[in-house]
Design a protein that fits this description.
elongated, 254 residues, Methane Monooxygenase Hydroxylase, Chain G, domain 1
Length: 254
């Protein structure tokens, strides 16, 4: 009589142990998924806030600022749901939602007077920032958080800005090389600028005027290179003639 009870209890303990183990594994799996989701949201939040901080480098419109603030609020809201006891996240969410209630300033830097950074690293960061913004626009449009017309308008503006930065940086480098009498390098820079202008899908006044200026500069550089080659040839011929004269000159008697 005692043996069946012991066996039953043993089986019950095994079943309970299995159930507890399954429940524990399920909890661990859920916790792991929550941590992975929280990490993903953290990266999204950091990436968005980095773009917002980059306002001083990349000209923003109210539409882009609002989009990034909404993206920040959405990430914080999801993080608060995962970590309900985090006071800091709740406070940041409240601050972001308050910013969304206020009208966003329409102060946008004029691309015509955009000053390029002298440092190459800063210039690369500027271009990367614009590319990241364009990718974010497409990503948020796919989620349905921004309408198509706004995406088209903003993406076109950023594409034109990216073109101007690329062209102006090439022209700036080309001009510096030309001033330093490095005409070969200068020609390469201006040719790159011309290629960018010619391949642009936005043939506006800026592209038309800049293209004419670059073409004229390339013609001037070609003339300077031709003149330089003539001078080099003359110097070479002069040296050869001098060497021949010295070779056949009467030998002095000592």
């Amino acid at each position: 009589m005692l043996l069946p009870i012991i066996i039953s209890l043993a089986i019950a303990l095994v079943i309970i142990a299995v159930i507890v183990n399954v429940v524990q594994q399920h909890k661990e799996r859920i916790a792991k998924l929550k941590r992975a989701e929280f990490t993903k949201l953290r990266h999204l939040l950091d990436d968005t806030e980095e773009m917002l901080v980059n306002t001083s480098n990349v000209p923003f419109t109210p539409a882009i600022t609002t989009l990034l603030l909404k993206r920040t609020a959405s990430a914080l809201r999801a993080m608060v749901e995962l970590e309900t006891g985090t006071r800091e996240l709740k406070q940041r969410l409240q601050e972001t939602e308050n910013r969304l209630k206020d009208p966003v300033s329409a102060d946008v830097t004029n691309t015509d007077t955009l000053t390029l950074p002298d440092n190459d690293q800063q210039l690369i960061a500027l271009i990367r920032g614009i590319k990241k913004l364009r990718a974010t626009l497409r990503s948020e449009h796919a989620k349905g958080t921004i309408d198509t017309s706004t995406v088209i308008t903003e993406d076109k503006r950023l594409e034109v800005l990216q073109l101007r930065i690329n062209v102006e940086s090439q022209i700036k480098r080309g001009s510096q090389a030309r001033n330093n009498k490095m005409l070969g390098s200068a020609r390469q820079y201006f040719e790159k600028a011309l290629t960018s202008l010619s391949n642009s899908s936005h043939q506006d006044d800026y592209v038309t005027h800049r293209k004419a200026e670059v073409i004229q500069t390339l013609e001037d550089i070609a003339t300077e290179l031709k003149a330089g080659n003539v001078r080099d040839r003359e110097k070479k011929e002069e040296k050869e003639n001098k060497d021949i004269d010295e070779l056949f000159a009467p030998k002095r008697k000592w």
